[in-house]
Amino acid sequence: MAKIGLALGGGGARGIAHIHVLEAFDDLGVKPAVISGSSIGSIIGAGYAAGMSGAEVREYVIQTFTKSSQVLAKFWQMRTSAISGLFGKDKKRFAEFDPLNVMNTFLPADLPREFSELEIPMKILVADFYEMTETVLSEGDLFQALAATAAIPVMFRPQIVDQRVVVDGGILNPVPFDVLGDDMDLIVAVDVVGRPVGENPQLPKRKELGYGTLQLLMQRITSLKIEQNKPDLLIRPDVHEYRVLDFLKTEEILWNTFETRQDTRQRLEKLLSDL
């Protein structure tokens, strides 16, 4: 059996398209030996690594994010005290959400709390804020690692892991296929960063400018990594029109990227047959 490494990249709600890739693996009856992830890629990958099928991940995500009322119900479950805990203790940081509380609220209740309980090993990327380096988390508290890699600056509060201040791993390594290991027979990488949408000379709005500039930086990092060591299979779903927080468009994202499943299945099947 071929040893496959699967890297799921960051991109917020655009990462919903990762589900098609998981379903393609299930279609072929193969499982990755290792999963690496940044940001949303780690969150989607954690469900799969815990033993959920691609279809089960799809169903859970749809049930969680399809209706705004359901999202509000998730917050209501936390009650008043828990909702206040979403924000930092420091009054000056009130606008930042605590990603660990968000993970505890929105992830499946039976998702393992420790890396050691996963069926498939995981490598989760975080960015060390002060050292300006990427760090791979692969043991210990899984939820803390997921919270750290999802800590988008300004939007979510930074996390402290092993006495280090860390933030969203996708900033330094948007598609972490290069950490899967040299012993992989095949490396599959999924890029959902997307690109700015629009045409010259149209000026982007302020929010679009902020998100778009980050996309430019992340795509440049990925391009440089691909030049150094290209993965065997690079999947890029058409997610450009969606924003980082478009989770309420889950069904639309899945529908508009449905071809990703067949594309992944066909290309991966050929690579496996060549082996």
Blueprint (SSEs and pairs):
Elements: E1 4-8, H1 18-28, E2 34-38, H2 40-49, H3 54-65, H4 68-77, H5 79-84, H6 99-106, E3 122-128, E4 133-137, H7 142-149, E5 159-161, E6 164-168, E7 186-190, H8 206-228, E8 233-235, H9 250-256, H10 259-274
Helix pairs in contact: 1-3, 1-10, 6-7
In a nutshell, what does this entry contain?
The chain is α/β, with parallel strands linked by helices. The protein has ten helices and eight strands.
Q: Please give the share of residues in helix.
A: 40-55%
SSE pattern: EHEHHHHHEEHEEEHEHH
Which of globular, elongated, flat, extended, rod-shaped describes the shape? Answer: globular
- Class per helix and strand makeup: alpha/beta
Q: How far from one another are the termini?
A: 10 Å
Strand content: 5-15%
How many runs of DSSP E, i.e. beta strands? Answer: 8
Number of helices: 10
Low-confidence stretches: none
Largest sheet: 8 strands, mixed
What is the average per-residue confidence, as pLDDT, rounded to a whole number? 90
> Mind telling me the C-alpha Rg?
18 Å
